[in-house]
Amino acid sequence: MLTSIAISNFAIVDTLDLEFKTGMTVISGETGAGKSIMVDALSLCLGGRTDATVVRHGEKKADISATFDITQYPHVFNWLEERDLDQDQHCILRRVISKEGRSKAYINGRPCTLADLKEAGSHLVDIHGQHEHQSLLKKSAQRQQVDEFGQLTELAKQVSQQYSVWRQLREALAAQQNRSSEQDAKIQLLAYQSQELEQLDLKEGEIIELENEQAFLANIADSQQKAYQVSGLLIDSDEGTVCSLLNQAVQSASQIAPATKELEEALEMMNAALIQAQEAADSLHHYQDTLEQNPERLSEIEQRLTDIYDTARKHKVLPEALLILRESVDTELALLQGSEETIDQLKESEERAYETLTALATTLTEKRMAAKDLLARQVEEQIHGLGMPHARFFIDCQPLNQVSANGFEDIEYMIASNPGQPAQPLRKVASGGELSRISLGIQVVTAHTSVIPTLVFDEVDVGISGGIAEVVGRMLRSVGKRGQVFCVTHLAQVAAQGNQHLRVSKQVANEATSSQVSQLQDTERTQEIARLLGGLELTEQTLAHAKEMLGNVHLQ
Question: How far apart are the first and last CA of the chain?
Answer without folding.
Answer: 25
